[in-house]
């Protein structure tokens, strides 16, 4: 009896150990069940399956998670609808006498099973798939076909229309309750397909926009949030599945996509194999919510109010819109020609027309016209115009012609990117367009004159036009009509395209419009500044254009694009050796020194970040994007009483909270930039697995513990100068101090970077 009591005591103590101290097994067989105190581990020690108890509950489940990455996220649960009691110590996962894998409680009652027979083993693969095999080694059942709330690389999300089988993601009921929640993620049956989040299996909560063979067009920058996404569409087999892979990220990386109990679809990435960082999520803002502005309404998150009606439409209820209830949508102001004639086959050419609305997530309920040529926009227009039921059309790269015959809903206007939608309007609602002209300026003085002329008077422009080179839009066809293949990148105020002038000079064209976050004032601001700023670490402007809602800026071409494409692009990351990174830090500092001290006016950039640092052919840095910059006098600090603009994670505390900015605001942004260059980690998405620490706090902790070199990007190995890294890290940390007066000036920083003087001494003496 004494032996029995001691045995039970030690069994109880053993059951309290965390999973990493549990006995590991590599398969389940009829003679070898998985009991509590054991975990089933994949061959490469990547995934682990075992019993777990969510916090704040008395329930126990069998689940699957990445073995060594924290915080631990359970990506699949067996008995999510039938929990075990946490006090049940005798439950086990076994292969029964009939060959069925089942979870039994302490009374040997089955609470979950695979409902198959003749299985001989169960094991976890290194891709996270939990499989049951027969004696011949064939798969009889797999967790990848019985998904939960998470999608792993190579797992399929979609449907088989012939068999009726559908693979969905279903949210947990709450953070601590794995039972089925109200949110469901899957693909639509439309062609091309869209990804949806539904509430209660049928009500749309969010949608991705159509698939264009490379990405969902309603998710800007999708290629940075999903790795190698793909839709496998086999019309003969009746199958359509979405999947993604990590082939380009290397073997040490891991990822999963999860739908939360609050309806947020997020992508998580572990680049170090030790902790998770958020790589993107949807919905992000109120405009992402399905149908936020109702029928014929357009949602733009950066404006207040966020909803407006399409041109030619008005609110269905002004009273409701005044209360910021936009779900009633908008109604047409002038009936179409087609609506005044019952003969649906009548051509309305010349009587109805189309309004071009730019940079949109196109509406729901599209219809695909595969019979039309993939490269003929005019055929799409003619087809829609000749059909009175057609309310809008879009010609999308890599898709072709999409038309809409139902009322337009769930239209979102992006700050940049997006698609052009052509909305059918009565002829009286349309404006006559005129060609856009691009001005290439020969001198800074000429640029100033043309800017004033364009903004205030076209007549004055004509009076001095002989002093400048004029190019029509046709001469910019080297961008192929702003074709996606010529797109260099995406800035906060618009996409940038590569082009070529008639004489063969390569250029970069930034395209802005009314749908861009950068308005006329910011555009004028950037031109005024650039015309008077000349420095080797600033991007040089070559021209400008303003025509109605269209605004273009022409820059010198930078062949290596922006710094963020190297820092966060897995294939280019290794190019940034330490010498290159140190040169970039020094160059940015010199550019800021010019802006703050050496130019004829003091300029505060206000949006310094990796995507605004461009790199020339020799990887020399040049600061770009002056749309948010401000001129200040002397050392004064200014308060922006209208709105705080910039990028989260790079704004100083005094600016983000109180709208106060000075040269020390740029210094703060520079500090964040330096720490990101050293670590290759994004300040906006860094998360330390065992503490609530962001990148800045993490760096401070390492510095205070004399472990500063642990911040260095692992891709550098040992090939860096320890003294230079520590100097840059010290400077970066001093720059991101909460109190602006404690930060060094950019003159202090430039001196420290170009000499061997200790950072702290220089700052104290220089302040």
General description of the model:
The protein is an alpha+beta fold and 767 residues long. The protein has five domains: 15-145, Agglutinin, subunit A (Orthogonal Prism), CATH 2.90.10.10; 150-284, Agglutinin, subunit A; 288-429, no CATH class; 437-556, 2-Layer Sandwich (Phosphorylase Kinase, domain 1); 565-766, Transferase(Phosphotransferase) domain 1 (Transferase(Phosphotransferase), domain 1), CATH 1.10.510. Helices cover 19% and strands 29% of the residues. It has 14 helices and 48 strands. The protein has an eight-stranded mixed sheet, covered by helices on one side. It has a seven-stranded antiparallel sheet with strand order 37-36-41-42-40-39-38, covered by helices on one side. Strand 19 and strand 20 (203-207) form a beta hairpin. This is Receptor-like serine/threonine-protein kinase. Pfam families: B_lectin (PF01453), PAN_2 (PF08276), PK_Tyr_Ser-Thr (PF07714), S_locus_glycop (PF00954). Residues 25-145 form the Bulb-type lectin domain. It is found in: Cell membrane. The chain crosses the membrane at residues 438-458.
Total count of strands: 48
DSSP summary: helix tally:
14
How many structurally independent domains?
5
Question: What class would the helix/strand composition place it in?
Answer: alpha+beta
Mean pLDDT: 82
Provide the low-confidence segments as ranges: 1-21, 342-350, 432-476, 760-767
CATH architecture of the largest domain: Orthogonal Bundle
| CATH C-level label of the largest domain | Mainly Alpha
Topology-level CATH name of the largest domain: Transferase(Phosphotransferase), domain 1
Main sheet: strands, sense, barrel? 8 strands, mixed
Helix proportion:
10-25%
| Span between termini | 78 Å
> Which sequence of strands runs across the widest sheet?
27-26-34-30-35-32-33-31
**Beta strand %:** 25-35%
The assembly state of the depicted protein chains is single chain
Global Rg: 30 Å
Please identify which CATH superfamily of the largest domain we are dealing with.
Transferase(Phosphotransferase) domain 1
Q: Which of globular, elongated, flat, extended, rod-shaped describes the shape? A: globular
